[in-house]
Amino acid sequence: MRRSFKYLLRPTCKQAVALAACLEEHRQLYNAALEHRRIAYRRAGVTVRYGDQSAELKHIRSDDPEGQGRWSFSSQQATLRRLDKAYRAFFARVRAGRTPGFPRFRGRGRFDSVEWPTDGDGCRWNSQPDHPTATFVRFQGVGHVRVHRHRAVEGHVKTVSVKREGSRWYVVLSCDDVPARPLPATGAAAGIDMGVASFLTTSDGDHVVNRRHLVTSADRLAEVQRDLARRQQGSGRHRRTVARIAALHAKVRRRRLDGAHKAALTLVRAYDVIVHEDLRITAMTRSAAGTIERPGRNVGAKSGLNRSILDAGWGVFLRILTDKAESAGRTLISVNPSGTSRMCAHCGHSAKKNRPTQAEFACTACGHIAHADVNAAINILRAGLALRTVVNAA
């Protein structure tokens, strides 16, 4: 299986400047290639493709030896393929009848990674293998950069990427042939109900607290954003304040990611079969503002709910849970959540009045009383086991 490994880089000041220059040159190459495609089609009706632009790289590098010529040829090809991928995605959305979103130029804050398609071609992971204490990765034009390797790399390194997040630099390795790590069977199965009051609730009655990381940092963020409003745009203070805001959001993101990893690992260790809701998070967090002719209702409340859903990080958690379940040899099943919160797990009666409050479930038919999230998780588990039976019988 393929897995990605992400490590913090420890560049020197000179190396950090070189990495920033590498990122900037690749951004300019991306924007120039986009402009080339736009002008060629607008003025001559000619469609420029990746192969055409890749063939011009040799001349671009020879004309700019101190700029584009410093960096790896293969990494520049990867940047051009990135643009080509954006075009193909645009036309796929057009054919599907969705809102297209034409590829746009990348500003300095919207281009934060460069990829080397092959380890050894313009970059080298573990470039000093005989070093007794540290690990290094070498990038063409930058040099040997120290890596904070907090865990071992598994499998065969396929591609290497460098990524900037705020003031930090990371190297991301995409590895093939990563061995699975199956866990011993437990014989247990669980359904999980995702929520805002509790991050998740299992059919066994266990609750995982929603840490609300963004809410916890809201006062500090508001204070720094007020400082930003008083800064003159383009000034040094303005740039430093923007960096402080980015650092706060990055800290929230890391905390959310850490909580998702811990919750997913707990579930994978405890259960052989895990059933979860097939959530359409994009649809659930769509704005209720409506249009000028038909304005939405309860827009403020819906906005607050959307913020709470996104702060919980359900999508990140489910993606991590999927990866960990695959590696551990666990079975992960997704089911349609429709009706699971209103149906009685005891008698099967479904009605809106069965859930008088957010946390309480009281069946109007049989009188069964339970925590609403636990009742929903039991229904989710049963639906998942029934679906598995049907699939195995087919």
From TrEMBL:
GO terms for molecular function: DNA binding; metal ion binding. Pfam families: Cas12f1-like_TNB (PF07282), HTH_OrfB_IS605 (PF12323), OrfB_IS605 (PF01385). The keyword Zinc applies. It comes from the Bacteria. Residues 314-380 form the Cas12f1-like TNB domain. Keywords: DNA recombination, DNA-binding, Metal-binding, Transposition, Zinc. PANTHER family: RNA-GUIDED DNA ENDONUCLEASE RV2885C-RELATED, TRANSPOSASE. In the C-terminal section; belongs to the transposase 35 family. In the N-terminal section; belongs to the transposase 2 family. This is Transposase. The lineage of its organism: Bacteria, Bacillati, Actinomycetota, Actinomycetes, Streptosporangiales.
